[in-house]
Amino acid sequence: MVSYERLIKQFENGSVDSQMLNPPIIVTLSTAEEAVIKKYEDNFRRVGFEIEQFGGNEYSIREIPTDLFGLTPEEYFHDLLDELMNDKQSENIDAVDHRIATMACKSAVKGNDRLSYEEAAALIDELMTLDNPFNCPHGRPTIVSFTRSDVEKMFKRIVS
Fold first, then answer.
1. pTM of the prediction?
2. Runs of H (alpha helix) within 1-158
């Protein structure tokens, strides 16, 4: 949620940070993958990639986004490529950017992840600065409230 909204704001501001690679990453792509790269070339650039044809069906990745959401550059690139290959409906730039940003959810804190008190507090503080802190991009709640009675029922203090 926090990563998603942060990335969407970076898209809107045109301020996605990237870092240059030396040496660049060389990837070999299928014909279908090459078509996706060409079709969404501007989108890849907007999210922080600089990709150039290297010869034949090989491409050189010279710059990558600084925030890879816990993935290696190759994993992030291939995941992004797979997302775009599997999304036949997205023709407008906003739909594609939102599809790309959805990948941020992969790095989100999950139910069994452990956080220190400081990490949890920082995450909650950042969550409360978002435009919509109450639901993730997929509509699931990020905040729930319980009345005292609800909590007492959960701990069998009230039987009804």
1. 0.63
2. 2-13, 31-39, 41-46, 73-86, 93-101, 117-127, 148-154
